[in-house]
Sequence to fold (147 residues):
Amino acid sequence: MYNEYDRARALKRGGGRQVLSIEEHLPEAEAAMLATVHLSDAGCYDLVWASNIVSRAWKNLENEFEAEGKAEWLEELRPFVAGGSAKPPSQEEAATRLGVPIATLRTWLSRLRQRFRESLRAEVGSTVSDPADIDGELRHLYQILMA
Fold:
């Protein structure tokens, strides 16, 4: 019973964290950028910066997956990373379409999320002179996208 209790309460592969929706927040950010009446120049710059960082990070992932011959996997797994859809896709259906067990799909998703975080970190890192500033810039990026 103790093992079952522990398993039920375990936070695995990013559990307990909010999934930030790339596809949901970028269009809003870009629309807000167009309606610059209420945005300062700095606010517009921040929106463009955040949009470019996220787009470049995802593009880098696409290039990596294409080089590995796994581009179709990335497209199938994208909704689980990007979020934002009204009805989340079914992991079971995605696993069936990819022809893998559900446990394998979940492992792939965990690794994809990690690779995306690393890609975002690398992109943000390319914009700062001191690597110690990366975490602060990532927090700023999330705040921009969530605003």
